[in-house]
Amino acid sequence: MKEIVTEGNTVDEAIQIALEKLKVSRDQVEIDVLDSGSRGFLGLIGGKQARVRVTVKESPKERIREFINEVIEALEFDVDFDVYYLDDYWRVDFEGEDVRFLIGRRGVTLNSLQMLANLAVNNKLNEKVKIILDAEGYRERREESLRRLARKTAERVCRTKKDIVLEPMTPQERRIIHLELQNSDIVTTISKGEEPYRKVVVCYRPDGV
After folding, report:
1. Is 91 helix (H, G, I), strand (E, B) or coil?
2. Exposed (0-12), middle (13-18) or buried (19+): which is 134, by Cβ within 10 Å?
3. Where does residue 7 fall: left (phi above 0), alpha (psi -120 to 50 degrees), or beta otherwise?
4. What is the DSSP string of 99-150?
5. Rounded to an integer, what distance in angstroms lies between the CA atom of residue 41 and that of residue 153?
6. Residue of 65, 109, 114, 141 with fewest CB within 10 Å of its CB?
7. Residue 207, CA distances (Å) to 114, 151, 185, 189, 204 in order
8. Which CATH architecture is the domain 60-136 placed in?
9. 0.85 cut: is pTM over it?
């Protein structure tokens, strides 16, 4: 995180000097006035310079990259990653020799890291962001698997006329189940429980045919 302490005849002048040195705009920084200064006797004798500390706000991309780097180094995984913004989400795509370890069984490791990334990054930012982690197309494969699960579960509910509770899922995964069955005339879906153990329940509709 970049920060600088500057002085000027006024607070505004000190801030402007800092902005020019950091090469950023005012909306990209946080400003802490250390001393508002004074003009002194007749504006000539005993005056004090204004002093400010100007800190460049950390962008979501920088904070995400910093967090992921720390985790990868701690785990000593041989993976590379890319951070980018798409469709209201900050996305991290992994690739490399140790990607399979990063995904884990049924994506448990990847989902856990995603939850930690959202908590850690949002704890450092003023505005909340949403982060999705993916590894060599795992999310796309997982989405198709969840769609199949939704359809098969709906068929089972129709046969048994009993509600079925699915395994805990991330908000994105639950959304896939809900969307896949939203137009069904025989079953409906609800979510129950608290994060990170919130589950989708596929329910039989008594008025179904």
Report:
1. strand
2. buried
3. beta
4. HHHHH-GGGHHHHHHHHHHHHHHHTT-SS---EEEEETTHHHHHHHHHHHHH
5. 83
6. 141
7. 39, 19, 8, 15, 9
8. 2-Layer Sandwich (3.30)
9. no
- Domain spans of the chain, in order of start: 3-56, 60-136, 146-204
Cα–Cα distance measured from residue 67 to residue 58, given in angstroms and rounded to the nearest whole number: 12
Over residues 161-203, the pLDDT tens digits come to 999 999 999 888 999 999 999 999 999 999 999 988 899 999 9
Chain center to CA of 55? 22
Compute the distance between CA of residue 123 and CA of residue 35 in angstroms, rounded to an integer: 29
Residue in 48, 45, 44 with CA at minimum distance from that of residue 35: 48
Give the C-alpha distances (Å, rounded to integers) separating 33 from 19, 74, 124, 130, 186.
14, 38, 21, 32, 64
- Residue 15 sits at φ, ψ, to 5 deg, of -65, -45
pLDDT (tens digit per residue) in 111-139? 999 999 999 999 888 788 999 999 999 99
- Answer CATH for 146-204 from 2.60.120.1440, 3.30.1370.50, 3.40.50.1820, 3.40.50.10070: 3.30.1370.50
